[in-house]
Write a structure and sequence with these properties.
By secondary structure, this protein is mainly beta. It contains 6 helices and 24 strands.
């Protein structure tokens, strides 16, 4: 595999596994069937957007993968160094229309503003989730994509500003060209037309512009990725199965979880690798592009994918408590670029990677560790200028463990070109801390 931006024709050096995004599927008859899970692959991943596309992906050794009706494939590499359980993630795409979910038991309904966190359960963790929902729901929209042939789907989005910019997943609106119409529905039921401002398949993010934006739009309050901790209470807000304004609650289950999904709208099929926030808040088809917020109602992530148990041939799975979101700092940085230029720059090291094991003799990184091996360093690249060498094994970036090639790729993609980070590598049994200034990947 190559670090993003080096040689995108190179395959990821890991066995493929099927995954998907949480995206509401196209109308019945237009979606692709979900393949039966492979033996010994108990979890499946699906996207929560609203369009149907199909591809294959790959992940780190030991990861689990599953395909979904969204025709997207996602994969997740485990992070044993962080002690996290479960190696899969999915958005829970479904093959039915919103009407197919009428027998839902989560307490949600078709009415805007529905919440499944009520009464004693809402206050069990000391958070007034009703108040948080009232604050956040006006900032989250349902997105509908409709093509000329009648096919389409639904997803979610987050209002960024009073000008009407809406942040969502690329896979929700990536087909919104050539006769495809996009509209957003506010929590009060108003339906507004929207145009696509910019798409960034590399991060699975997109920005829409609401046309003739009303003056009472409520922008979401942005949080900070640095403030998010494992165990923090969070709420997911979105449009699962067409049930606009639905909220679900949980905690942050893990941070820095490397999740791989197949990009949409890129002929090369370059995978999306995200250093994701993992949550056990229920995320289902249609949640893609929606908000993950903290107990103060601040945005901490954009819900993008989930893992679920396969439900047999032709069936789909919903949330089993393994959801994944793009961290807010990464999402906001890309959104700002898309609004300004319609495109976004990405960081690269200029290396070819393999999964590897490092043996550090002494010091704070002593012992046997999983890492990302540098199989090759491009001459003149950011890695070369920093003094990194082929044979080095990266075990940490900015003090956070890096346990695989996919893990390092995700970490680099979360950086901005020109940013300097401390990289810990094992070389000849010694742990070296090397400052590296990442460069911009070629467009």
């Amino acid at each position: 595999m190559t670090e993003p931006g080096s040689d995108r024709t190179q395959p990821l050096p890991v066995p493929p596994t099927p995954w998907a995004h949480p995206q509401q599927p196209a109308p019945a008859g237009t979606e692709q069937p979900v393949p039966a899970p492979r033996r010994r692959t108990p979890l499946a991943v699906t996207a929560v957007a609203a369009t149907a596309l199909m591809a294959a992906g790959a992940v780190g050794v030991g990861a689990v993968v599953v395909t979904t009706a969204d025709d997207l494939v996602a994969a997740l590499a485990p992070l044993p160094a962080l002690g996290a359980d479960g190696d899969t993630a999915t958005d829970g795409s479904a093959d039915g229309s919103p009407d197919d979910s009428s027998d839902s038991t989560d307490g949600s309904s078709d009415d805007p503003g529905t919440t499944d966190a009520t009464g004693a359960s809402a206050a069990a963790d000391g958070v007034d989730w009703g108040e948080v929902a009232e604050q956040v729901q006006p900032s989250v929209v349902a997105i509908t994509v409709q093509s000329a042939d009648g096919s389409g789907g639904q997803g979610s989005g987050v209002v960024l500003d009073e000008a009407g910019h809406v942040l969502t997943n690329n896979h929700v609106v990536a087909t919104s060209s050539g006769g495809v119409e996009v509209s957003v529905t506010l929590v009060d039921g108003r339906v507004l037309a929207a145009d696509v401002v910019g798409l960034d398949p590399s991060t699975d993010l997109a920005v829409l512009q609401v046309l003739d934006a009303p003056d009472d739009l409520v922008p979401v309050e942005l949080g900070s990725s640095d403030d998010v901790q494992v165990g923090d209470p969070v709420m997911a807000v979105g449009n699962p199965l067409g049930l606009a304004g639905t909220v679900t609650t949980g905690i942050v289950s893990a941070l820095d979880r490397p999740v791989t999904t197949q990009s949409v709208g890129v002929s090369s099929g370059e995978p999306v690798v995200t250093d994701a926030v993992q949550t056990d808040a229920a995320v289902n088809p249609g949640n893609s592009g929606g908000a993950l917020v903290d107990a103060q109602g601040r945005l901490v992530g954009i819900n993008s994918s989930i893992a679920g148990l396969g439900s047999g041939a032709g069936g789909q799975s919903g949330s089993i408590g393994l959801g994944f979101a793009i961290p807010v700092d990464s999402a906001a940085a890309v959104a700002e670029q898309l609004i300004e230029d319609g495109t976004a720059e990405h960081a690269r090291l200029g290396v070819y990677l393999d999964d590897a094991t490092a043996e550090v003799v002494d010091g704070p990184w002593a012992g046997e560790r999983l890492g990302a091996g540098l199989a090759q360093v491009e001459p003149g690249s950011a890695a070369a200028q920093a003094g990194l060498q082929a044979g080095d094994v990266v075990v940490a970036v900015e003090g956070r463990p890096t346990t695989s090639a996919v893990s390092l790729t995700a970490r680099v993609r979360a950086l901005q070109p020109g940013q300097t980070v401390d990289v810990v590598v094992e070389r000849d049994g010694e742990a070296l801390e090397v400052p590296v200034t990442v460069e911009a990947a070629e467009a």
